[in-house]
């Protein structure tokens, strides 16, 4: 056990699974980087942010594949390879690039098992960076997990810290269904105690990072950390919050969410994705339908506005949910008074 | 060219099975008993069969929306296919795929595909599996002239060359992408496209089984030997519309009649083999009769087969969830 | 002494402890306390522990409030006589805080000794090797499902004048997950090999639960390595074992299901902290961990009873020996402490469950000190 960054945790998960199972291969744009370059250095980048650094050197060209910048062909190839005996981990770099290859994910990998009557198994992992906060603007900053969550046949994972990232990625690689694994690009240098050994965190089991009596906060990915910060500040003012990190949006641990709302009677959902038809809507609908009687106040959602992610720092800051907004939302549900019947 | 007698018999049977299967579907579809829509492979039989004659269960193919012929050529059970098209629980996909998604991965049949251009990227992956798992297999993508314009296809030609994959790209050029002629929609030539990627190119007359068999043999041998991918351009003709119910108002009167009379791969095959006494008429007649019975039995069985149960709705979305 | 101000700081209960949370204050501001009286309950990474006042006086300030988490050494309260003015106390607190933050910035949290990995045959064992001095070393052996941090309130206590070693058994904590046949004798052989590897010829052995059975096997096979035996709620001296605990520990994989299982370990159920539960869940997620526990459980507790009777080993061991047991042990009944040979010193602790070394660490430390002195 030692302190490892989010980046190292993912690299270690990939390395350990590639050591364990020769069918696990890696492909993506510049996952090694440098093939054919004039320097002769073949592990030049290790991914655009260095996440896969060293894996080409350790495992060689039969396990780590740099691809041309053609997302449709290599994401499709990953799906085809998964259906025919390999266990590929394909890196899509920025999740925004799904626009170039959605068919391969949505109509091919996700559907094989069902439309082939249960006869296909597609153990595919697609890793991609998501999220704003990097001044990467509208085409490199989206939090597109609702898009994948919407598609039956896919599993969707959003780790909130390095410990979670390693265990969830190993689980993803060992899972026999197609998994979308989303890494918040702002978190790569976050550090955490991460065991050296391989371990798995099951999908569909939410993690309670705080347990309290007054308000349930459901948050996804990086937002979990903001929710924790807000909860810790509120605790000092005597408002105790439960913070739920669902870990996976598909499957979603609806039982834990409903149990916690039954205990606290108040719900705030924090979602970094665009506000229409996102996970906050999904969770709010779930609670409104299944736990209406438990609610002491309206559900509040903390989300960005319905705009593309802006470039300028000042605008991006305005765009992003943060712990202050979560805190304000919690205070507002705590202060809610039902109107008297006329 | 020498072709073993058993291969000839098997190939003829396969082509005859496809023809009868499709002709029967044409009739049955008109009765309204078959749900959804079907795309028929009539007239193109020699292509699928001529290519698959060089493949075994280890090899992989990816097909198209017009996939029945490829399925039969790759060995998928006819009764299971028929039941699938009728939406029955005994279908190869338990009634959950239908005509456009017939697949049998145990036979290396990676699925018909409802998305034009969906197959070539998948075949790059299957070819990668063959290469890394060292099973000496080859992966074959069938795609039409319409799909030849899809970005996925062009990307796949590039990727297969870059990774030197044991893949063969079979462009089945039947002259029409839906209702639009390839003379309108395809710029340049398939040959020049292959050349653009530095990929070996083979071309043949798809109405002539022997021509397809020979060209496919060379393309597949090239890939299987580890020399990288190849393209096989098969010139074909489509006897029915894009889908059943298509009135084909975009085709000249008499075009199909002429194809049926003068460019029938089955007639051509029979003529060739009997002229030089490779096979006799009676053994071919025997196959025809046997296939007729098989198709009849498949239709009767499919109509009598059980429908999917309500619990099938939720089954097999995931391996585990 | 009039005018004395005593700072009350976040205690360091064990080497691994870097911070603690004030679970509750047990003394109101303005009340007097005596040395040894419990000032507060401090939540650690394992269980909640009572903090005994290091001095007598009036608790003038609760600097840290309940629920607050502070670094070891941080000011949590102030003791002083009634004649010290509020202004003096304010000045003291301000001075302390200034110095503490600058000191914390200088030294960081680097001083705590990290466990090391020791290779014993094919196994990698995580070992906390502390202290030095001429006195005979102390070896700590934890029980089923435990790890070396089970001794976090004990190991330091003995590290002043001697070497102390706690380690993760195979299949546990950060050690290799290969448990072999899972029998106590096998673990004892590994333990003997570890002592050789560490150049420890002889050690006082303090062992808990299943570790007790391992210690007895060690005393049987390698009597020359064992200076004394302090067995805390040991296995091997009775037939019964709470299989709801064993099976629950193996199967529970969520906080909700594991927490009630861990309640079997302690008399005061509120002592089990979130962190302790989380730590065990994290251990069980490691590849091979659950399989290892299953093997051990099958080997040691087949058919729901303890397989090994080690009364003979205890009787035959000629060195100083003792058994320490919580009267309210719900995993291994303290009834097994009855009828042992007169040469075995028996300590029964009231209102104590299966983990006296954590729940009543001061009593256990005192008993061990007495035996090995």
TrEMBL record, chain A:
Pfam families hit by this protein: Transket_pyr, Transketolase_C
Keyword Oxidoreductase: yes
Transketolase-like pyrimidine-binding domain ranges (all copies): 4-190
Keywords: Oxidoreductase
Superkingdom of origin organism: Bacteria
Keyword Oxidoreductase: yes
InterPro entries: THDP-binding, Transketo_C/PFOR_II, Transketolase-like_Pyr-bd, Transketolase_C
Gene3D superfamilies for the chain: 3.40.50.920, 3.40.50.970
GO molecular function: oxidoreductase activity
CDD domains, per the entry: TPP_PYR_E1-PDHc-beta_like
Protein name as annotated: Alpha-ketoacid dehydrogenase subunit beta
Species of provenance: Brytella acorum
Top-level taxonomy: Bacteria, Pseudomonadati, Pseudomonadota, Alphaproteobacteria, Acetobacterales
UniProtKB/TrEMBL annotation, chain B:
Record SUPFAM superfamilies: Thiamin diphosphate-binding fold (THDP-binding) (SSF52518)
Keywords from the named record: Oxidoreductase, Thiamine pyrophosphate
Cofactor(s) listed in the protein's UniProt record: thiamine diphosphate
A family per Pfam: E1_dh
Any one Gene Ontology molecular-function term assigned to this protein's record: pyruvate dehydrogenase (acetyl-transferring) activity
InterPro entries in the record: DH_E1, PDH_E1_Alpha_Subunit, THDP-binding
CDD domains on file: TPP_E1_PDC_ADC_BCADC (cd02000)
Domain Dehydrogenase E1 component positions: 14-311
Summary of the function given for this chain in its UniProt record: The pyruvate dehydrogenase complex catalyzes the overall conversion of pyruvate to acetyl-CoA and CO(2). It contains multiple copies of three enzymatic components: pyruvate dehydrogenase (E1), dihydrolipoamide acetyltransferase (E2) and lipoamide dehydrogenase (E3).
Name of the featured protein: Thiamine pyrophosphate-dependent dehydrogenase E1 component subunit alpha
Automatic annotation (TrEMBL), chain C:
Keywords for the protein's UniProt record, in alphabetical order: Acyltransferase, Hydrolase, Transferase
SUPFAM superfamilies: alpha/beta-Hydrolases, Single hybrid motif
UniProt domain Lipoyl-binding: residue ranges: 5-80
Xref: InterPro entries: AB_hydrolase_1 (IPR000073), AB_hydrolase_fold (IPR029058), AB_hydrolase_sf (IPR050266), Biotin_lipoyl (IPR000089), Single_hybrid_motif (IPR011053)
EC number(s) recorded for this UniProt protein: 2.3.1.12
A Pfam family matched in the record: Biotin_lipoyl
Gene Ontology molecular functions: dihydrolipoyllysine-residue acetyltransferase activity; hydrolase activity
GO terms for cellular component: membrane
Protein name: Acetoin dehydrogenase dihydrolipoyllysine-residue acetyltransferase subunit
Protein source organism: Brytella acorum
Origin organism lineage: Bacteria, Pseudomonadati, Pseudomonadota, Alphaproteobacteria, Acetobacterales
